[in-house]
UniProtKB/TrEMBL annotation:
It comes from Chthoniobacter flavus Ellin428. It comes from the Bacteria. GO terms for molecular function: cytochrome-c peroxidase activity; electron transfer activity; heme binding; metal ion binding. This is Cytochrome c peroxidase family protein. Transmembrane segments: none annotated. PANTHER family: BLL6722 PROTEIN (PTHR30600:SF10), CYTOCHROME C PEROXIDASE-RELATED (PTHR30600).
């Protein structure tokens, strides 16, 4: 999440000064908002309530079938809740599913199964996120256009005065406190170490949804990876370096690889709080290693190339719009 200050908005229609209240009061759909929440919803002094109501409206929309239709191949398979048995998985897709909920450790952040509050709303259907925050060690994207947006004249409300020195601290760049009053930064982005580099784990539903087969998607918060294959390979081998003979070695990101070995991936943009920064395997981490730096959930998963492919094939089953597109089995 880039640090793009937009500046205060001028008071309008009764003195609203908050971004949300101003935007809603000026929107073409403001009458619809009033129809749902009352004709006086935009009255002066009600700005905080408008913010809360806007959140309710967004949550209702995101929970609707328009956003979450649950029409993927996964939802038409025996894995659905309730099981559908319309479209059986291929051997590769099924192996990918087992890897997702097992060896590949994806479920640790991308499964809502342990969340009773979510399951009660979705009737037990998986949303493929735990809504947690983590730093998975994503490298910088050198092609991020934000690095070049340094001209305050042409872009006065969103320019980047730091240029290529800008660091995206994620949650640690959020100046707004949590509903519980937790502050993620004090004065400058990243000045509270516990929140540096943390990003919310997104849902993996529709992770491969594209307008056409040749459309190139961008993955991670900064778009550094351009395919699911790259993403899965990163999760598998982030902590791996290779020498000229093709031999691989795992290394601690805080230390670097041994002499003669080159990392397969660039260093994390933010090293603080990186998951499994030590590069342990999942089996190694289960030997008494519990803290986030050695949890084995990413970086050295020991997946084979075929297993990486199977995992990608499983992720492709999460795209909505599949039901009804093929023959039922």
């Amino acid at each position: 999440m880039a640090n793009n200050p937009v500046g205060p908005l001028p008071p309008v229609h009764g003195g609203y000064s908050t971004d949300v209240a101003h935007a809603l009061n000026q929107a073409s759909y403001a009458p619809l908002f009033q129809q749902v929440f009352g004709a006086n919803v935009f009255q002066t002094g009600n700005e905080a309530n408008v913010d809360a109501l806007a959140g309710q409206a967004i949550a209702a929309y995101e929970a609707s079938e328009e956003v979450n239709p649950f029409t993927s191949k996964y939802d038409a398979s025996a894995n659905a809740r309730p099981p559908a048995n319309l479209y059986p998985f291929t051997a590769s897709e099924e192996n990918g599913r087992q890897l997702f909920f097992g060896k590949a450790q994806c479920f640790a952040c991308h499964s809502s199964a342990p969340l009773d509050s979510v399951s009660s709303v979705t009737a037990g259907r998986e949303v493929f996120t735990m809504y947690c925050y983590a730093n998975i060690g994503t490298p910088r994207n050198p092609n991020n256009p934000f690095y070049q947006e340094t001209d305050p004249t042409n872009n006065p409300n969103g320019y980047n005065p730091q240029g290529t020195a800008f660091i995206d601290y994620g949650l640690g760049s959020n100046p707004n406190p949590s509903p519980g009053g937790v502050h993620f930064m004090t004065n400058t982005p990243g000045d509270i170490a516990d929140f540096r580099g943390l990003f919310k784990a997104p849902s993996l539903r529709n992770v491969d949804k594209r307008p056409s087969a040749d459309f190139v998607k961008s993955y991670m918060h900064n778009g550094v990876f351009k395919s699911l294959e790259e993403v899965v390979h990163f999760y598998n081998k982030r902590n791996i370096a290779v020498n000229t003979a093709g031999e691989e070695v795992a290394f601690d990101l805080r230390v670097g690889p041994p002499a003669g070995y080159t990392p397969l991936f660039p260093a994390p943009e933010v090293l603080d709080n990186v998951q499994n920064v030590a590069g342990l395997t999942p089996s190694e981490s289960r030997q008494g290693e519990a803290d986030v730096a050695t949890n084995g959930q990413i970086g050295h998963l020991e997946l084979t190339p075929d297993e990486e492919t199977d995992l990608v094939h499983f992720l492709e089953t999460l795209t909505d719009g599949f039901i009804g597109s093929g023959p039922e089995q």
